[in-house]
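Q: How would the structure tokens look for this protein?
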Amino acid sequence: MSDTELILDPGERARRFWTSHGRTVDELTILHAFCTNLDAAWTAEGLCIWYGIRVDRARRILSGLRSCGIVNPVSDGAPGSTWNATLDWAAPRSQATREIVQQRWLSKAALT
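A: Here is the predicted structure in token form.
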């Protein structure tokens, strides 16, 4: 067995993140809500009201994002979750990452 380590450039790393975790338009929207509103504690109900995502879908997506550590429960026990700041590299702040997210959205929107 080899001790080979896969080294990814930042663009490819972001592309893989958004491809793996943004499989649907709703997942992409929720990911984007979290990583562009770092101080917001989102709940399924809030995502439903703000983005029009069905509350049952929002609950399912939030549960998945919490289980893999993309979002964290609010620390003081209040309802909601916040973006995991260690994943800041995936937030669409650079032009290259914004383009990756936009391309992913367009590819998913074309299928719906």
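The CA atoms of residues 29 and 51 lie 8 Å apart.

The domain at 20-111 is CATH 1.10.10.10 (Arc Repressor Mutant, subunit A).

Upvote if useful.
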